[in-house]
Design goal:
The chain is mainly α. It contains 9 helices and 5 strands. The strands form 2 sheets. A 3-stranded antiparallel β-sheet has the order 1-4-5, covered by helices on one side. Strands 2-3 form a two-stranded antiparallel sheet. Strand 4 and strand 5 form a beta hairpin. The longest helix has 21 residues, at 9-29. The two termini are 29 Å apart. Residues 193-206 have low confidence and may be disordered. Zinc ion (ZN) binds next to loops.
Length: 206
């Protein structure tokens, strides 16, 4: 099953390595003011199927070293999804397991992942309502939609990237693909008046 990989310590070490790579890339770019970035990681208390060792609980982040700027720069992450307290892979997997031809029951998932029903419903709302509206997805879909069919978020994404239950590279690619939405800016919804009006509620789903 897909969730077994998420209980594997080496999976989280693997994701941490990707986060370090993403952080190095951000650091190399420096601050938009031209200043240098210094490490200013902060500790989070992520929830997930297993407790992460302390060194993996840090959100990698930087601070500009120039007086008058001192801007915080937080690179994208494959472990943390925005401010969500649960690890990103859990937010993807639990929501995906509620979808498809044989959806798992909410009761089952609350036990398996130690997540309450309300949170599961909130995630559903996030994937159904919020995610498709993000600028990130509006750009990404042009690249992905010709390659695979989107039926449900996030299940369609999971199936497109992760081929087998222990496909950690697939997970790495999926979470890296989603990593722009792991920063607050990436989750913004750009409101523009030149788009057609959104479909009526009843039209959204078959
Ligand atoms: Zn700066």
């Amino acid at each position: 099953m897909y969730h077994e990989l998420l209980s594997d310590a080496s999976f989280w070490a693997f994701l941490f390595k990707i986060d370090r790579k993403l952080a190095d890339e951000s650091r190399a770019k420096g601050c938009s003011c031209g200043g240098r970035l210094h490490a200013a990681n902060y500790l989070r208390k992520p929830r997930g199927p297993r407790a992460l060792p302390k060194e993996h609980r840090y959100r990698l982040s930087f601070c500009c070293d120039r007086d008058g700027c001192r801007k915080r720069v937080t690179p994208p992450s494959v472990r943390f999804l925005g401010r969500k307290i649960y690890l990103g892979a859990v937010v993807v997997l639990v929501a995906a397991m509620r979808q498809g031809p044989t959806p798992r029951r909410v009761d089952e998932l609350t036990k398996l992942f130690k997540v309450d029903r309300k949170t599961i419903y909130r995630w559903r709302e996030f994937w159904n309502e919020h995610f498709p509206q993000t600028t990130f997805w509006k750009v990404a879909r042009a690249r992905l939609v010709p390659v695979f069919k989107v039926v449900d978020f996030p299940r369609s994404l999971l199936e497109a990237f992760v081929r087998t239950p222990d496909d950690r590279n697939g997970w790495g690619n999926l979470l890296e693909f989603l990593s722009p939405i792991s920063t607050t800016k990436g989750l913004e919804i750009k409101v523009s008046d030149d788009r057609e009006k959104p479909a009526e509620d009843g039209d959204r789903r078959p």
